[in-house]
TrEMBL record:
Organism of provenance: Georhizobium profundi
The protein's name in its UniProt record: Shikimate dehydrogenase (NADP(+))
Enzymatic reactions: shikimate + NADP(+) = 3-dehydroshikimate + NADPH + H(+)
Key word Nucleotide-binding present: no
Domain SDH C-terminal intervals: 243-271
Source taxon at top rank: Bacteria
Keywords: Amino-acid biosynthesis, Aromatic amino acid biosynthesis, NADP, Oxidoreductase
Enzyme Commission numbers on file: 1.1.1.25
SUPFAM superfamilies assigned to the protein according to its UniProt record, in alphabetical order: Aminoacid dehydrogenase-like, N-terminal domain, NAD(P)-binding Rossmann-fold domains
Gene: aroE
Binding site for NADP(+): G131, A132, G133, G134, A135, N155, R156, T157, V158, E159, R160, I220, G243
Length: 281
C-alpha cells in the first residue's frame, strides 16, 4: 500500500503561517489523500532537518521554507534552479531519488496575483519599488523578467538599495526616500515591499494621482489586507491589488510538485485565509 504524500512548511516561529490553510483546502477540495503540516525548526536544527528530509527518514516528499530558513535552504539543497540561484534564497523543496531540489516561487506568485486581479498591469515601462529587504529581490527580479525597462528602488538606507540594484544590472537604480515623490510621478507601477507604517514608522504621503493613466498600486504585505499605501492609493482613485494573492499563487507550483495536481486560486481559498486573518485581530 502506497503511503499518501506528506508535505510541510518549515520556519521559526511558524504559528503565523497560513500555508496549512491553503494546502489543506486544496487537498480536501480535490479529494487527495495527502497531508500538509507546519513544522517549527530552530536555525541550529535546520541542517539536520534537511538531512532527514533527504534520506527519507522525515517521511516528506517536500515542502515550503519560510523565515528564517530561506537562505540556509540554499546551502543545504543539492539542486538549485536558476530562479533561486539569482535570488540567493529558496522557498520550495522537493525530494527526488535522495536529492533535494530547491526553487523560489515568490516572484511567480507576485506576477500571477497581479495578472489575475489587474489584467494589463504590466503594459508600462517604469516601476517604483519601495523597500530593499529580502522580499524585494523576488519582486524586482519578476519585474525585470516581465519586461519593465526601469525599476527604481527606494529605501530608507540607500546603501541597501544600491546592494539590491547591483544584482540586476542597468534596469535597476537605487534612491533615497527624498526622491520618492519625484519617482512616483509618471511611473506606471508602484509596489511596497517595506514594513513602513507597520513597524511604528510614519508612512510617507504619496500623490499617486501623478502616476501615468492606468497605473496600478500594490503591496506584498497581506496582514493587514488594506495597508496604509493601499488605503491612500484607493482614496486617490487608483486601482490597487493587495498582497494576499501573492501568498496564494506562490503555493501553486509546490502543491503541483508534491501532490500531482495544479490547483486554482479561487475566491473560496482567498476567503478562508481572510477569515483567519480577521479572527486574529
Amino acid at each position: 500500500m502506497t503511503t499518501p504524500p506528506a508535505a510541510f512548511v518549515v520556519g521559526h516561529p511558524i504559528g503565523h503561517s497560513r500555508s496549512p490553510i491553503i494546502h489543506g483546502h486544496w487537498l480536501k477540495k480535490h479529494g487527495i489523500a495527502g497531508s500538509y503540516e507546519a513544522l517549527d525548526v530552530a536555525q541550529h536544527d535546520f541542517s539536520g532537518f534537511l538531512d532527514r528530509l533527504r534520506s527519507g527518514e522525515a517521511g516528506f516528499v517536500g515542502g515550503n521554507v519560510t523565515m528564517p530558513h530561506k537562505e540556509a535552504a540554499m546551502r543545504g539543497a543539492d539542486e538549485i534552479d536558476p530562479v533561486a540561484a539569482r535570488l540567493g534564497a529558496g522557498n520550495t523543496l522537493w525530494r527526488v531519488d535522495g536529492r533535494l531540489h530547491l526553487t523560489n516561487t515568490d516572484g511567480y506568485g507576485f506576477l500571477a496575483n497581479l495578472d489575475q486581479r489587474a489584467p494589463g498591469w504590466d503594459r508600462g515601462e517604469r516601476a517604483v519599488v519601495l523597500g530593499a529587504g529580502g522580499a524585494s529581490r523576488a519582486v524586482i527580479d519578476a519585474l525585470v523578467e516581465r519586461g519593465f525597462d526601469r525599476v527604481d528602488i527606494v529605501n530608507r538606507t540607500v546603501e541597501r538599495a544600491r546592494e539590491i540594484a547591483g544584482l540586476f544590472g542597468p534596469e535597476a537604480a537605487a534612491h533615497g526616500m527624498e526622491e520618492l515623490s519625484s519617482l512616483v510621478r509618471s511611473a506606471d507601477f508602484f509596489v511596497n515591499t517595506s514594513a513602513l507604517g507597520l513597524d511604528g514608522s510614519d508612512v510617507p504621503s504619496i500623490d499617486f494621482t501623478s502616476m501615468r493613466p492606468g497605473a496600478v498600486v500594490t503591496d506584498i504585505v497581506y496582514a493587514p489586507l488594506m495597508t496604509p499605501f493601499l488605503k491612500e492609493a484607493k482614496a486617490q482613485g487608483l486601482p490597487i491589488v493587495d498582497g494576499l494573492g501573492m501568498l496564494l499563487h506562490q503555493a501553486v507550483p509546490g502543491f503541483e510538485r508534491w501532490f500531482g495536481l495544479r490547483p486554482d486560486v479561487t475566491e473560496e481559498v482567498r476567503d478562508l485565509v481572510i477569515a483567519d486573518l480577521e479572527s486574529k485581530h
